[in-house]
Structures are given as structure tokens and as C-alpha cells.
Amino acid sequence: MNNPYYTISDYYKKTYGEKVYKLPVKLSLTCPNRDGAACFGGCIFCSESGGSFENLPSFMTVDDQLNKNREYIGKKYKAKKFIAYFQNFTNTYMSLSEFKEIIRACDKDYILAVSISTRSDSITEDKLIFLKQWSEITGKDIVIEVGLQTANYKTLELLNRGEDLADFIEACNLINKYGFRICAHVILSLPWDDIKDIRQTARILNVLNIKEVKVHSLFIIKGTKLSKMYKNGEIKMPSKETYERNVIEFLRYIKPDVAVQRLVGRAPKEETDFCNWNTSWWLIRDEIIEIMNSCGYTQGDKSHKVIYDKIKGE
Q1: Which residues are paired to 84 by β-bridges?
Q2: What are phi and psi of 129, to 5 degrees?
Q3: Tens digit of each residue's pLDDT (9 = 90 or more) over 225-253
Q4: Where are the alpha helices (DSSP H) in 179-272?
Q5: pTM attached to this predicted model
Q6: Diameter of the chain by CA atoms?
Q7: Which segments within the chain are labelled E, that is strand?
Q8: How confident is the model at residue 50 (pLDDT cuts 50, 70, 90)?
Q9: Minimal CA–CA distance to 216: which of 256, 249, 180, 246?
Q10: Distance CA 267, CA 271 (A)
Q11: For a tag on the chain, would you pick the N or C end, based on fewer CB atoms within 10 A?
């Protein structure tokens, strides 16, 4: 099946010359919108695990988690090179000395890069300066994953993000100053967003020089505030067809050189009240690809850059 979008696996092969897989690392930490620094309660969709479901226990050292995951994932996928991925909660929300310690633990021969998932309000220049120095010394690439979710400020308030679009823009400008790749997280089945919000989100990411995106469907975790809203009939989830349309529109507006990490989020069925319309994530992905191919759509074919290049070519 021909991919009409730029996959992260294609980027890895182009950059590193071989298959590369992420090694998840779970730390014992929290978020500023949980402890009151930004607000309380956390995002209404986030579970107590902080967005990770298959990670090793956080009491294990970074070194032990990397080695154990390398042994399992390397054997399963016959991979030799990896990316250390700090996934759950806000992985820059700690002191500089703590941050240095966890990053230095990633200086291993089999680690090509470090990917750090965090929030806009927790991007600080002192940590970026350290990452720049460490990257230059070790030769490891750095990717900062930042959650935007949507450009709609009203939706961000409803999600209890505790940060807004301006925070995201400010953080991206600071990260770009140090030349790191940015991966933006977006949710494309938010009940309060329409197709205009989808387009606007993509266009803003283009302006901010985002290099990677991770697309999520909104799944509803049991015990969350979102779960209560869902059960009380306060929200209605869009259809699978609407989600697929949203993803396609997003891909058509995002620039063609932005690597796409995924098209569908997923969570364990037993932990959710709603997840992917009871459909396998790979089936939704394949349907999106099939629609795009049958219609002749490709990533970025509606982006300003592509349109401008076509005009110049004429």
C-alpha cells in the first residue's frame, strides 16, 4: 500500500539508514496542571498513568529501563538502534540537576537520539542549553515533543490544559532557537472542534517549523473527568468517518516534509469507555490511506508552500 504521507519510519531510514525504534522510559513525576503550578486536576482526558500504558515501572532506573526495553524490542523487531523516549507526564518538570542525570543515562552506543515529551510551560532555557551541549558532545539527536492538541483556545480551556496557543508558540520559538526537532501532538476528534480548527492547527504548525507530528484520536479513559462527561451525555464523540476526514484534511494542510509518527492513538480496551469506535487502529489508518490514494490526495497538497511552488513552476 502506497503511503500518501511522510511516515516517521521513512524519516528514520533516510536519516539513520536503518530501522529505529523507541525505548519508552517512565519517570516518577507529575505535571504543572496537576499540582497547582498551572491549575489542578490535569487534562480531563489524562489518566493517572500520565499517558503511558505499556511502560516499565517508574521505580526502575533509566539505565535499567533502557536495557530491558532494548532486549525485548530489539529481539521482537530485530532492531539494533533506538531512541530513548521519555513519555509520561511532563519530562522537563524537574530541577536542572535531576534533568541532567536522566539525560546523561542515555549516552549509550545503541541510542541515536533522545525524545522528550513535555508541556509548553515547562520548556526552560537552562535545560535547552544543557541539551545543546550534551548533544554536541555525544552526537545524539534531540527531539522535543510538545502537546498542542488544538489551536482552538476555547477547547484548550475545556480540556483544562492550563496553557494556551501563545504558550505553545513561545515554547516552539525557544526550542527552534537551539535547533532541536519539534514533534507536536494533536487530537483530531475533539467534540468541540470543527474542520476549520483542524486546518488552522496544521497551518500554525507549519509556521512554527514543526518537523514531526503525532496524531491522536480522543479515547476516553475510565475514571477521568472526560469519562464522567461522556457518561452524563455532556459530550458526543464524532463518528469514525468524521475522524478520518479530519485526519485527511490535517495531512493535506501540513507541509510535506513533516514526519508523521502516527495517525491514530490507542489505549487498552479494558481501561477505556470509548476507544477508536471499537475498531483496530491499523484498520482506521489503512482506511485513511485508501481514501487518500483513491482521491489522489497527498500530504501537504493544500499547504501554502506546495501551492506557491506550483505557481513558481508555471
Answers
A1: 23, 114
A2: -60, -45
A3: 999 999 999 999 999 999 999 999 999 99
A4: 195-207, 225-231, 240-253
A5: 0.92
A6: 60
A7: 20-25, 81-86, 111-118, 141-149, 181-187, 212-216, 220-221, 259-262, 272-274
A8: very low
A9: 246
A10: 7
A11: C
If we measure between CA atoms, which residue out of 143, 87, 146, 148 comes closest to residue 112?
143
What residue has cell string 492513538? 265
Mean pLDDT estimate for the chain = 92
pLDDT top residue among 313 and 197: 197
Rounded distance between C-alpha atoms, residue 70 and residue 126, angstroms: 30
Helix (H, G, I), strand (E, B) or coil at 123: coil
DSSP symbol at 35: B
Q: What amino acid occupies position 137?
A: I
Q: Is the pLDDT of residue 181 over 90?
A: yes
Dist CA 251 CA 302 (whole Å)? 9
Q: Would you state the pLDDT for residue 279?
A: 96
Kindly report the backbone phi and psi dihedral angles of residue 40, in degrees, each rounded to the nearest multiple of 5, phi listed first: -115, 155
Separation between Cα atoms, residue 216 and residue 314, nearest integer Å: 37
Return d(Cα 12, Cα 300) in angstroms, integer: 20
Q: Which three three-digit cell numbers place residue 190?
A: 475533539
